[in-house]
Write a structure and sequence with these properties.
Immunoglobulin-like; receptor; 22-stranded antiparallel beta barrel; Beta-barrel_TonB_sf; Phage tail protein beta-alpha-beta fold; Outer membrane receptor proteins, mostly Fe transport; Plug_dom; 917 residues; 57 strands; five-stranded mixed β-sheet; mainly beta
Length: 917
């Protein structure tokens, strides 16, 4: 008796072959075998269409012929005992006998016992559950792999990519779960996923914010690939969230991570109505800035130069406009921002505190579309153009500012005659290559020009070009190539009344190349390994006198160059359902390169012009001094139950590049200094431990995470130092230790009419500079608060949606006032009055708090409209709080007086019109 799978009743007899089939066409070969061997084949024509195979084997045995013929297809075959009939099957097998004990298995599973399977030497048959099938979307059943009598594996590997159906761009952080098995995974940044599934029928569900949820039926016969295409989800209009997928908060092993969607930031009231994911980032626990209107980020007590900011894998040295009030990113071309505050993925490196990974959206591959806004200060526009339907696209964005009136409205008399303008533009091309590859290229440029005084014009610019190629090397191995160049420059044009006019220039250029591979190793490991290199070229500064009879000498500081590289390998190890580990080892190496002259100083003496013992000349590209060492990265996650987990991490890092600044906050004219013979690289060691829990089907997220960071060889300045246009800056700076520790608490509500988050951080950031000599010490060599040490930081962001079209938003921020150095007395020497200052950062300016409110009005949601509109009416600093930006001191009539400077001391209303077509 022959037992055939339930598929057989649906089979029909073969139809007449088409005369125009090629000799290697499978359908033609099957017809030929029927004529030559006198056998009858049973199959469906659709199974054979388009399949090309090798020539027929020379064997006389029909089984040998079909084994060779169907080896590279998903088809199996069954030959009856008389060898007169051949049944072709897709993926599965035909069983002509059952092992003993088969019907003793549990009725609901219909699975043979392991002992019975071994007797039969066959994998168990697969039966489909009609009841489960009715509950899924009508996408058809995906049959994966090919059953084999020689393959008795307990589980098989399912891999693939998740893509948006309209643009073809990958979907990161997509939560994939297998119904009834309690297992799942999350897609990586390129939308890749991997699951280990037992043989048989499963229902795979896919959910993420911004896409429509989907269920897909799969039948697993062996290893295989399944790509998922998901549609945009309209429920995104109801959400104000930070992370793309709420479940990732509990499931991912990496701790200290945040994701901000650009679209989600549109309902958060910010200054002058500008959508700004970088400003939103400052409201998250563990991330702050030195003050309102200041550039840069301080992440977990680190300095502003300890953050690596990437735009589509290219480095941006100053991602802000207008003193940090605006981001230098077009919100309509920006997709999301991923932030790593603890141990980052092993392919990232070069900074101590954080990675800000900004990703641009890919253009629409189906039709021309666009988005724009007009506000009181800026105008933005982005246009998406398909280059090839469903395969490639171009997106271009531009922003401009008409901001002069803002300076005149600030509470500062010296700014009344000032002017400012800025511009940024971006072009990105994205194209799918083959079935499993993609190429993306981004070009970016931004420029600021402002005049704070009537005689000086300041200018700075960013330029970036990056290329990324994701490709499939083999069935289980994917490769990524990243190449790019970044350029940052600033200049000052001084045109005064005296004969001292000059032009001043500075620039840093970085070229990078990185290649890494990702592949599974068995069913519990996923490896990432590769190599990275960066070449730096720095123009430390030049000053060129302008005009005849100029009294100023020209200054040109010799160019600096350096090479930085790294080898890295990491493993995502999942030993059980509860445990997941991220293990990584990175080995960075660095050398400053000639042509250069390096000083040597006497031992036992402070560095100064008087203690120089000699100099060494280095030729072009000659290594000056090598630095480097291993970086270990360890992160773990343990599930306490289905909705909560504990995470912890340990890692260390090297940083070979520093900023030189004696300002309180980062400024556009801060310079970058490469490590060399006399300035060592910075190092940091950090550990973190946190508890994460979700409530009510991921409606609420709660996390509390503590950290401790120790830093070595961080750079600071001597009192009264001259840093710019100084060829020997090592005599003006100090290198010391730092420590930072804190606790971060975050509560978010992701769903419902009321949503948003509440964040609180208690943190300390302390530094110590203790040298052998008095001039190398700060505060007698004791730890003192950094300029950005603000122990208490509280933020509340909320959005309440009355209807689909109307909502109100609020943003409240409270921070401890930052440290400052005060004068504590005066003294007279040689008939001259002098001010005696306290120890560095011994006092604090008043605490900071601010309330912002906004009303959001969307146009009607009719489908057939020329454009969809969105109005934002907001008031920044509703309470009119005169928050101090800085406190400074002047001497008048023999008295020292304290003055306070504020950025926005009054409520600032704005109205912005957004449109999308």
């Amino acid at each position: 008796m022959v037992l055939v799978m339930s598929l057989l009743p649906t089979m029909g007899f073969a139809q007449e072959s088409k005369t125009d089939q090629e000799a290697s066409d499978l359908l033609t070969i099957i017809k030929k075998l029927e004529a030559e061997k006198g056998v009858t084949f049973f199959y469906l024509d659709t199974w054979l269409e388009g399949i090309e195979v090798a020539d027929i084997s020379a064997s006389d045995d029909i089984r040998d012929i079909l084994t060779d013929l169907l080896a590279d297809t998903e088809l199996n075959f069954f030959v009856d005992r008389e060898q007169k009939r051949v049944y072709l099957l897709r993926n599965t097998l035909v069983y002509d006998q059952l092992p003993e004990g088969f019907f003793d298995a549990e009725a609901d599973s219909l699975q043979a016992t392991p002992e019975a399977r071994q007797i039969a030497q066959l994998p168990p048959p697969v039966f489909l559950n009609d009841g489960a099938r009715q509950r899924t979307r009508n996408l058809g059943i995906a049959r994966i792999g090919k059953a084999s009598a020689d393959d008795l594996a307990a589980s098989y590997t399912l891999t693939g990519r998740a893509l948006r159906s309209d643009t073809g761009e990958p979907i990161p952080d997509l939560a994939l779960r297998v119904r009834n098995l309690g297992i799942g995974t999350v897609t990586d940044a390129q939308g890749n996923y991997q699951l280990q599934l037992p043989r048989g029928y499963h229902v795979l569900s896919a959910t993420a914010m911004g896409v429509a949820s989907m269920e897909r039926q799969v039948v697993i016969y062996g290893d295989g690939t399944l790509d998922l295409e998901l549609e945009e989800g309209i429920e995104l209009l109801d959400e104000v969230v930070v992370e793309a997928d709420a479940a990732a908060n509990v499931e991912e092993a990496t701790s200290g991570t945040e994701t901000i969607e650009s679209e989600a930031s549109k309902n958060i009231p910010l200054v002058l109505g500008e959508r700004d994911i970088l400003q939103v980032a400052r409201n998250l626990p563990g991330i702050s800035s030195a003050g309102e209107g200041s550039s840069g980020f301080n992440v977990r007590g680190g300095r502003t130069d300890q953050n690596l900011i990437l735009l589509d894998d290219g480095v941006i040295y100053n991602p802000t406009h207008f003193f940090g009030i605006f981001q230098a990113l077009n919100p309509f071309t920006t997709d999301r921002l991923d932030i790593y505050k603890a141990a980052p993925p092993v392919e990232y490196g070069g900074r101590l505190s954080s990675i800000f990974d900004i990703r641009s959206t890919n253009g629409n591959t189906e039709k021309i579309s666009g988005e724009g806004s007009i506000g009181p200060v800026t105008a933005n526009l982005a246009l998406e153009v398909p280059l090839k339907q469903e395969r490639s696209s171009l997106i271009a964005g531009a922003r401009g500012a008409y901001a002069d009136w803002i300076l005149r409205s600030l509470d500062e008399e010296s700014l009344q005659n000032s002017q400012a303008s800025f511009f940024d533009g971006i072009v990105r091309v994205h194209s799918l290559v083959g079935e499993d590859g993609a190429i993306g290229a981004t070009g970016y440029f931004s420029r600021d020009a402002f005049s704070i005084t009537q005689d000086s014009l300041y200018q700075y610019s960013n330029a970036l070009l990056s290329l990324r190629w994701d490709h499939k090397i083999s069935e289980n191995t994917r490769g990524t190539l990243v190449a790019g160049n970044s350029d940052y420059r600033f200049g000052i044009d001084f045109d005064g009344e005296s004969n001292t006019d000059f032009e001043l220039d500075y620039g840093i250029n970085q070229t990078q190349l990185k290649y890494f591979l990702q592949r599974p190793l068995g069913d519990k490991h996923r490896l990432t390994y590769g190599v990275a290199a960066n070449f730096y070229s720095v123009n430390p500064g030049s000053r060129e006198a302008q005009g005849a009879n100029n009294a100023l000498p020209d200054i040109l500081i010799p160019r600096e160059q350096a090479l930085e590289g790294a080898l890295f390998i990491g493993d995502t190890w999942t030993p059980s359902e509860k445990w997941q580990w991220e293990l990584g080892l990175r080995f960075p190496f660095y050398t400053a390169l000639g042509e250069a002259t390096q000083r040597e100083y006497n031992e036992g003496e402070p560095r100064s012009d008087a203690s120089v013992s000699g100099t060494t000349e280095y030729g072009s590209l000659e290594p000056i001094r090598w630095y480097g060492g291993p970086e270990a990265r360890l992160a773990g996650r343990y599930f306490l139950d289905e909705t909560s987990s504990v995470k912890f991490s340990l890692h260390n890092a090297y940083q070979f590049i520093h900023t030189l600044s004696n300002n309180t906050t980062i400024s556009p004219i801060d310079t970058w200094k490469l490590s060399d013979f006399n300035i060592a690289p910075q190092q940091a060691y950090q550990g973190s431990l946190g508890y994460f829990r979700n409530f009510q089907d991921n409606t609420y997220e709660f996390s509390v995470e503590g950290y401790y960071k120790w830093m070595v060889d961080v750079l600071d300045f001597k009192t009264g130092s001259e840093l710019f246009l100084n060829q020997n800056v090592e005599t003006e700076v100090l290198q010391g230790d730092g420590q930072a520790y804190g606790v971060e608490v975050l509560l978010k509500k992701n769903k419902g009419k009321l949503n948003g988050w509440l964040g609180y951080t208690y943190s300390r950031s302390l530094y110590r500079f203790d040298g052998e000599f008095e001039e190398e010490r700060i505060n007698d060599g004791e730890f003192f608060p950094s300029n950005f040490d603000k122990p208490h930081d509280f933020s509340l962001i909320a959005n309440y949606r009355f209807t689909r079209r109307y909502s109100v938003s609020m943003n409240f921020v409270y921070q401890t006032g930052r440290p400052i150095t005060y004068p504590v007395g005066t003294f007279r020497l040689n008939n001259t009055d002098y001010v005696f200052y306290s120890e560095r950062n011994a006092f604090r300016i008043p605490d900071f708090y601010r309330l912002d409110l906004g009303i959001n009005i969307e146009g009607n949601h009719r489908k057939n409209k020329l454009a969809h509109s969105f109005w934002t009416i907001s008031v920044y600093n509703v309470l009119g709080r005169n928050n101090p930006y800085s406190v400074f001191f002047v001497s008048e009539g023999g008295e020292v007086k304290a003055l306070q400077s504020s950025i926005f001391a009054i409520p600032v209303p704005s109205i912005t019109y957004n449109f999308k077509f």
